[in-house]
Design brief:
Order of helices and strands of chain A: HHHEHEEHEHEHHHEEEHE
Distance between the termini of chain A: 35 Å
Helix content of chain A: 10-25%
Number of helices of chain A: 10
Structural class of chain A: alpha+beta
Oligomer: homodimer
Shape of chain A: globular
Strand content of chain A: 15-25%
Number of strands of chain A: 9
Chain lengths: 412, 412
């Protein structure tokens, strides 16, 4: 059992391996000493693991996402704490582009499943969230449940599949490489064996990094630019106002955290594709090619909801998506959106595409942000005709880990 | 209705658009004049559309795949020919990074669905295949069915889901951008409305281009390097020997084409992950970290199936995957493999991952290549324990299009 001091990256591990199996054993056996250096890594390909906030919230969107929701077995609070400690160590290594460490036993299963062995960290972030159901009587956490972590109400038109909804825990894995994102969830699921079971798993894609460092706003599967009016994640003041939980809440452990609402929104593309360009633009309230508000020329032109055409009709229709979703329509409520498109093959019941947007948003309090906005959208947004909310959940994402604070610290 | 001469790329279209809607109309109206210049495009991001062979066979593997199988309605041979002509024009434009062209009518649905508008061609290739069922009595094609396009026999352990198996037509879309690959299938499906219906759709991922132009062999979800012993697609002699149909077959229209066998192979990762490293390496016959044959040091070392350990036991076990699949074990039969990993969420019946390999291979004649190899694998390969073949099909991929030969020419 060869042991090497310190951490070695997945790439270094392979580059230097003469006796390959010995190298895997060495990496697997790096153990606790590895953790200290784990936040080093190839510049430009790693996102910081330690910080006031978790990664994957204001991190510039990576190209790929795998979102997993888990149910926790009735293992008591000690079992939950042990799981989180195991996960934290693995997440720290993976975020640095390293293989998961474990006992160096060639007669045991590999500590790391291996499919990311030659790959860089690819800007991997892992974001943990706690669902409302975790605060039932199984773990003695009822008194620690934040008031803001209320179950979402039923919205008009909801078509939530229970098998795709809820979860005691969630992990959002984002990376610029699909295999790296999957590897992370694969390994967390494996490490949680006996404590957690998968409830659902969603794969998504966004802007591909190789598409050229473009600063253009990405398009969703409707063919429209999506995110023009999103909050700017580099605007610290906006993040403090709308995203990060401050000390004013009822649960101090959430300070520096954020609440995630995820919705799997299927888009009925066949119906959308048959609507005219004019209908599509009036439904959204923006030009399809440029993304400019209707009546304006440029994507970044301000949204003027009072502008009228020559007949006195609003240029942005009353039921246009951008109008109904706008902060000014919602008493100033805004969200940090972070969505990924999904294509889950074909719906066998209709022969249509099962595709759409895995919508995620982060906020200080869903009760005053996502919930009233979605209530308005579900009732008034012309786009709703083409959408079907088929799953998702609400999760409390704790603050970020540090040298003396594991991932998910504060609650358990 | 503005018309512009020649082709404009999706990017040029947007960059130059002052009046955005007019720009879309212009692109949609580019019409026949666009086709002549359609094979131009940004260097490095387009793959040639015209050629002796279709793209997507020996093309260096792109990072993303969307595979669609279609059933054709009973529209007669004229309907099928019209579909192929429409598809050919759209494919030629998309392969050049252009939007699908169509009548410039603002009161009609957009000619292109739009989600790839700002994106380059991303090395998009589209590969068309004809399934055995296309040669029944609907289109009068029975006499043109190649003998090599025989239905695959049932293999031991097959668990084929009829809803994921077969298809009159298939299209393999490969690109370095997930949205570009999906956009292509989305638009072909839409253009085929009334003539074709989706039968199944599979999304897959491989090596991510942004992972750094690495020449390392990619790993599959088992964590092993996959493709070390694959045929070299740049070896023209090997391609002529094993992949391209020559003039000796019974159907001359297939000359320059190839036969595709696709298999959706689910990997039972939970069981695999619980096996030891030693077991995994003996199952495959290679080192997990390096990919070297057992008993050798380097990935590219020749596979010596006669090498014995000190106890006289074969270093590569009798049932190791690499031994059973090796050409020397199969009377010299070899295939050009082109596989993509898939993650389709969770199997709701077991709570396990529904993930694995969408295996594709191209060959001169499946009856003497895929079929005998798979018969041997299904009976003898130790890896079979962890695998489940859940869908796929066999397809005749015609030769490549040219200036006077549309995509899919030769058959109809």
């Amino acid at each position: 059992m060869t042991r090497r001091p310190g951490a070695i990256s997945r790439r270094q591990m392979l580059a230097g391996s003469g006796l390959a199996t010995a190298a895997v054993v060495a990496a697997a056996g790096a153990g606790p000493t590895a953790a200290a250096a784990a936040t080093s890594g190839t510049p430009g390909t790693t996102e910081p693991f330690h910080g006031e906030h978790q990664g994957g919230i204001v991190t510039p969107e990576q190209a790929r996402m795998v979102f997993a929701a888990y149910d926790v077995s009735d293992t008591g609070r000690a079992g939950l704490a042990a799981l989180l400690a195991t996960w934290s160590a693995a997440v720290e290594r993976m975020a640095a582009g390293q293989a998961v460490a474990g006992p160096a036993d060639p007669f045991a299963p590999p500590a790391d499943t291996g499919e990311a062995l030659d790959l860089p960290a690819a800007r991997l972030t892992l974001t943990l969230g706690y669902g409302p159901s975790l605060f039932d009587d199984r773990f003695g956490l009822a008194a620690r449940r934040p008031a803001a972590l209320a179950e979402l109400p039923a919205f008009p038109g909801d078509a939530l599949d229970p098998a795709r909804t809820g979860g005691d825990l969630c992990v959002q894995a984002c990376a610029d490489d699909a295999q790296v994102a999957f590897h992370a969830i694969h390994n967390l699921t494996r490490l949680g064996l006996g404590t957690v079971t998968l409830r659902y798993l969603q794969v998504g894609f966004g802007r591909t990094a190789s598409a050229g460092g473009s600063t253009a706003t990405p398009r969703n599967l409707l063919g429209f630019k999506d995110g023009t009016a999103n909050l700017d994640p580099t605007d610290a003041r906006a993040m403090d106002s709308f995203v990060w939980v401050d000390g004013s809440g009822d649960q101090n452990w959430m300070r520096g955290g954020s609440y995630l609402v995820a919705r799997r929104i299927r888009v009925h593309l066949e119906a959308w594709d048959r609507s005219t360009l004019g209908d599509q633009e009036r439904t959204i309230g923006r030009s399809k090619p440029s993304g400019a508000p209707l009546g304006s020329s440029n994507e970044r032109d301000p949204l003027d909801l009072r502008a009228l055409d020559d007949f006195g009709t609003p240029l942005v229709p009353e039921d246009a998506h951008v109008r109904v979703a706008a902060p000014v329509t919602n008493h100033g409520a805004a969200l940090l959106r972070r969505g990924y498109s999904f294509v889950d093959g074909m719906d066998p019941t209709t022969g249509e595409l099962d595709a759409g947007l895995f919508f995620m948003c982060f906020q200080k309090d869903p009760r005053s942000q996502f919930v009233p906005i979605q209530q308005r959208l579900a009732g008034q947004d012309a786009l709703t005709t083409y959408l079907e909310h088929t799953g998702g959940g609400v999760f409390a994402c704790p603050p970020g880990p540090g040298p003396d604070r594991p991932w998910g610290h504060g609650l358990v």
